[in-house]
């Protein structure tokens, strides 16, 4: 997977992961609930699609969840599909 500079922005009870490439911005938003991060939306603009940008956003959330001992509930269909494709992420998947 390609490397992207991803920022985590927090606001209130959630936030977003964002990366900016070639003047375009991709994001994944999340909401926090107790020891759980709920991924509720992922958006990658057309000009950045096909470059694993969305997967990199989810992967960053997985890394952060592991570091903080939190679980992830992927309500966003894209994030849920990434969890199905990446069996090594199951340790942070909320069941």
UniProtKB/TrEMBL annotation:
<dbReference type="Pfam" id="PF14542">
    <property type="entry name" value="Acetyltransf_CG"/>
</dbReference>
<dbReference type="GO" id="GO:0016740">
    <property type="term" value="F:transferase activity"/>
</dbReference>
<protein>
    <submittedName>
        <fullName>GNAT family N-acetyltransferase</fullName>
    </submittedName>
</protein>
<keyword id="KW-0808">Transferase</keyword>
<dbReference type="InterPro" id="IPR016181">
    <property type="entry name" value="Acyl_CoA_acyltransferase"/>
</dbReference>
<feature type="domain" description="N-acetyltransferase">
    <location>
        <begin position="9"/>
        <end position="94"/>
    </location>
</feature>
<dbReference type="InterPro" id="IPR045057">
    <property type="entry name" value="Gcn5-rel_NAT"/>
</dbReference>
<dbReference type="InterPro" id="IPR031165">
    <property type="entry name" value="GNAT_YJDJ"/>
</dbReference>
